Structure prediction request, 128 residues.
Amino acid sequence: MVEEKHSPEDAPKGAGSYRPNLPHHERLSNWEKRTQIINQGKSVKYDNLFISILPQSYWELSVVTKRGSGKASQRNEFKRKIKESFRLCKPRCRFPAAVAVTVLHKPDCLKVETLEKFLVSNINTLLK
Prediction:
């Protein structure tokens, strides 16, 4: 029999998952749309990450990690950190945007707080 997953003590009652996930409507899975963001948006590089930002009327995120950026567990960790920093930067930005992130190589020091500040500053300067 499969064990039931329990949420932490401080999680609200009835909450099935306590880890904040990226909502389905904010996930960008269309490869043509991702290519459009990379070609038409502002591109910046941050710690072996290639980030493209395109202003639009709603939020979207696409994350791609190359196999040369580490083992599968490390690549999944990079994706979780990128998604978390995207989630935290949304309330601090004035306008929504589509963000496409490509992890080219293993980042030296990928921290959620610094990536969040970097995203906020780039999105706000782009949309002035």
